[in-house]
Amino acid sequence: MPRVKSGTTRSKRHKKVLNLTKGFRGTNNRLYKRAKEALLHAGKYAYIGRKLRKRDMRKLWILRINAAIKEIDETMQYSRFINALKNANISINRKMLSEIAIADFRTFKDIVSASSLKGTEKK
């Protein structure tokens, strides 16, 4: 059985990993073993970061909605506003509410007044 040499395959694999780790600091972009480890860690951090970004965006939307509510009515709270929206059968997600609060404040005021009017009728 002939001997199989892995020179070209190995060099391609090494080159691929080293190209992916361009911009990493120290030996993490020069030495294959360190670069491979750094690439694994980077992938793990990227995965976690994608989950955290969703969390952060939701927090931002809630902050924006709360700030807009406070401008309309000092005593209104975010949780009560969301509850009033649900009672009034107004289904707008937090992202859209925050965008409306930023872009078109008059419409947001109308949504708040509609939710508070319909929310009190059910009780």
| Class from secondary-structure proportions | mainly alpha
* Gap from first CA to last CA: 86 Å
Assign a percent range to the helix content.
over 70%
Strand coverage percent: under 5%
Q: Give me the CATH fold name.
A: c-terminal domain of poly(a) binding protein
Task: Supply Rg.
Answer: 27 Å
The level-1 CATH class: Mainly Alpha
The secondary-structure element order is HHHHH
Topology:
Elements: H1 7-20, H2 32-72, H3 78-87, H4 94-103, H5 105-122
Give a quick set of tags describing it:
mainly alpha, 123 residues, rod-shaped, c-terminal domain of poly(a) binding protein
Structure notes:
By secondary structure, the protein is an all-alpha fold. The chain has one domain (10-122): Ribosomal protein L20, C-terminal domain (c-terminal domain of poly(a) binding protein). Helices cover 76% and strands 0% of the residues. The protein has 5 helices and no strands. It has helices spanning 7-20, 32-72, 78-87, 94-103, 105-122. Helix 1 runs parallel beside helix 2 (32-72), helix 3 (78-87) crosses helix 5 and helix 4 packs across helix 5 (105-122). The longest helix is centred in the middle third of the chain and has 41 residues, at 32-72. It is rod-shaped, with a radius of gyration of 27 Å. The N and C termini lie far apart (86 Å). 13% of the residues are buried.
